[in-house]
Design brief:
Nucleotidyltransferase, domain 5, five-stranded mixed beta sheet, 7 helices, 28% strand
Length: 239
């Protein structure tokens, strides 16, 4: 069995795979690493592949130190996609592995990959298996926090989806500004890509994906394990 680990800004996600199939999965917050060892204890794991956006991965490495083969994916890893990116050494590994997950779903098809998390990434993988780049913008909570901390009077509010587009209070106006700002950003990105590249598959992933999929329409695919499946796809492909 193989272990795939997606280390994000606020959470760590682990999945155990047997071949192409996910066997088990766990997600923990940064302060809950003690839950990982009991989870791993149920399986005989031969190898681990990791995607991380953090500089310090000491705690995770201590947790999986017993695994014989451990590999951190980088832009220099053997990849089944080409990176058309001017600074590949700065390209987030989560964006690369999400693109690999998209390839595993829709090989040789144009794909828009949208990851809605602490930050939002909007990327394009061409049908020729070329990662063409994309955009990074603040996530929901980051937008709300910035509006509070960078002004003198705007309050800090929790994120929420309100069906009414027009905010009827300052709280609602802030929530709508963050939520609908993201919605229209995603919608505009999709429309611009589709004008240049017809027959595009749109894949949403990340903790905030479900909040947007109904508004964006039925043609959107939601895949909560896109990065983990991308890691396993790479592991299987390279094996």
């Amino acid at each position: 069995m193989n272990l795939c680990v997606d280390i994000g800004n606020s959470k760590v996600k682990m999945a155990v795979y047997k071949g192409p199939q996910m066997v088990d999965y766990i997600k923990v917050m940064n302060n809950e690493f003690d839950q990982l060892a009991p989870f791993l204890g149920h399986y005989s794991i031969k190898s681990a592949v990791l995607s991380t956006v953090r500089k310090d991965n000491t705690a995770i490495m201590e947790t999986i130190a017993h695994i014989e083969s451990i590999e951190f994916i980088t832009h220099e890893s053997t990849l089944p996609i080409k990176l058309n990116y001017e600074t590949p050494h700065t390209l987030g590994i989560d964006r690369i592995t999400a693109a690999l997950g998209a390839k595993s779903m829709f090989d040789n098809e144009n794909c828009i990959i949208i990851d809605i998390g602490t930050c939002i990434t909007l990327d394009f993988l061409s049908g020729k298996n070329i990662f063409e780049g994309g955009n990074i913008s603040p996530g929901m909570r980051m937008r709300l926090r910035a509006m509070h901390e960078m002004t003198s009077k705007l309050p800090h509010v929790e994120d929420a989806y309100n069906e009414e587009l027009l905010g009827k209070s300052t709280k609602m106006a802030l929530q709508n500004g963050a939520f609908y700002g993201i919605y229209f950003e995603i919608l505009g990105f999709i429309q611009e890509i589709e004008q240049k590249h017809p027959h595009v598959k749109v894949i949403l992933t990340g903790g905030g994906a479900l909040e947007f999929v109904e508004l964006l329409g039925s043609k959107i695919f939601v895949h909560p394990f896109l990065i983990l499946d991308g890691l396993n796809y790479l592991n299987e492909n390279n094996a």
